[in-house]
Amino acid sequence: NIVMTQSPKSMSISVGDRVTMNCKASQNVYNNIAWYQQKPGQSPKLLIYYASNRYNGVPDRFTGSGYGTDFTLTINSVQAEDAAFYYCQRIYNSPYTFGAGTKLELK
Amino acid sequence: EVQLVESGGGLVQPGRSLKLSCAASGFTFSNYYMAWVRQAPKKGLEWVATISTSGSRTYYPDSVKGRFTISRDNAKSSLYLQMNSLKSEDTATYYCARHGNYGPFGPFDYWGQGVMVTVSS
Q1: Which of B50, B61, B108 sits opposite A46 (nearest CB)?
Q2: Over residues A5-21, mean pLDDT
Q3: How far is the C-alpha of A53 from the C-alpha of B13, rounded, in Å?
């Protein structure tokens, strides 16, 4: 089965900074990746699908990129409300494996 | 407005069974693949099951295959998860989620608020 590895596990960023987090698949998944945001006490929310497509209503400061095995979620000019866990997920074929997540904290 | 509302969680002893339900509204339930995703306390997300629009096809990871059964009742716009032979490691919040417009090939675009299942003696 494909393993999704996210890095870093956590990061502490100041409001207004640019942040990049990574997701690496153990095998080629083409562009079949989604990114989700989960704030404490809430259910996950879809941000990005098929690696680079922003979901409805997601602010354009969120950008996804990558293909094959290496993927990136970039947040330009981080806002206070962006403090959350971020998960990547392999889509298109089961098992729909998630990465372990990256925790984004604001300084 | 799309809504997914889970129910049926609680405390259950190891080895026993529990059935979760998810009531869907705000969309044509029968047109969408549906799924269950769980999250152990302070842990990440784990996909648990997916079911096709008609219910004829189901998919599971190895961790629950043979113990969990996903089903649906399109007339009632409801999704179910029958969990048998429960183990302590099944303790988690269980989310009902909708596969979006790309069906089984796409992401989960709506999620319920989750229901807690605790497996303990």
Answers
A1: B108
A2: 97
A3: 43
What is the per-residue pLDDT across B4-49, written as a single tens digit (0 to 9) for each?
999 999 999 999 999 999 999 999 999 999 999 999 999 999 999 9
Q: Is B73 left (phi over 0), alpha (psi -120 to 50) or beta?
A: beta
**C-beta atoms surrounding B45 within 10 Å:** 27
Q: What residues of A are in contact with residue B108 (Cβ under 8 Å)?
A: 34, 36, 44, 46, 89
Which SS3 state, helix, strand or coil, does residue B49 take? strand
Distance CA A61, CA A59 (A): 5
Q: Which regions of chain B does DSSP assign to beta strands (E)?
A: 3-7, 10-12, 18-25, 34-39, 45-51, 58-59, 68-73, 78-83, 92-99, 108-111, 115-119
- Contact residues, B window 54-113, toward A, CB-based 8 Å cutoff: 59, 61-62, 95, 100, 102, 104-109, 111-113
Per-residue pLDDT of B99-110, as tens digits, reads 999 999 999 999
Residue B18 gets which letter from DSSP? E
Distance (Å) of CA A20 to CA A6, B43, B68: 11, 22, 37
Question: Within 10 Å of residue A66's Cβ, how many Cβ atoms?
Answer: 19
